[in-house]
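User: Fold this; tokens only.

Assistant: Input:
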Amino acid sequence: MKKIPVICFAVLMLTACGNTSGDGTFAFAKASSVTTAPAETFTETETVTAPLTETVTTTAAETTTTAAETTAITAETTTATAAPEPAPAGEIDYPYCTAYALYNADTGEYIAEKGLDERISIASTTKLLTASLALRYLDPEDVITVGEEVRRAQPDSTLSYLLPYTEISVYDLLAGMLLPSGNDAAYTVAVNTARAAAGNESLSDDEAVAYFVELMNGFGAELGMENSRFANPEGWDDPGHYSTLRDMIKLAGYAAADPTLSEITSTYQREFYSDVSGDLWWTNTNLFLDPYSAYYREDCTGIKTGTTSDAGCCLIAEFHIGDTDYICAVMGCEENEQRYELVNEILAAYLP
């Protein structure tokens, strides 16, 4: 069994997965999710266009969890090594976030955490569950035809720009969902996965999406996500769509251990061409993977960003440092860059 990478989980909450902020309350960097040709200086962040509906003003109470209270994502772990000395109490206090965690994926131990079991909105980090579930029923090499379901994506949400009648492999479809965080691609993934799982190609789009959401909740329960509930495949803000950072670390560990998802989420940019959709360039929204970004880190190996009005700016990132895999996650940051600054602060404070 492959050991689960440690993901520096930065999930920052403010703008809907792919929503856009237009009222100036928060300064989210906005960049096109798709370009018609690669550009050496091109960087990508998750688009934020929907007006912000609330501003996080309180900080979740910091809690600590001992290794004995923490369950490893998988039963198989390597020999535990001595945990680094913790940073002084209160050292990690900027930028603001609602929750953060530094997790050793090799030993299943939390090195640092705040708000680990607080209920949070999770934005597009939801897509890690959507992708993981899809690979249970679909093969990466399967070719499917995009349908009208892509039009279900919310206005102003981040898109892969796939058009109906485009033929695409499941692998490329997942790339279109995970790199630019395409909500249109998420619905194509959901509809085709549901029809395959139900063994019924005649399911309408509405029926297929509803069936997929049921599968999401069942799959989350299998992963031990005891305090999570899912209402859609893309992570759009919804009162019935929530999780905790502890649950999301479990999901991130599972996804990072999948060879296909690990490969996709560690990719900076991918080209896709079809006669219908044209030449598309998908750029990863994770600036740690962008060689032209000030936040680029060679030791980052994935995994997913998320941004919505309720969730804020979120990031779940995986790092291979020394001989160890870590997951560092931050949720609910107020601005795009803050998620990367906070992750860097956490890594510097707690790791050798």
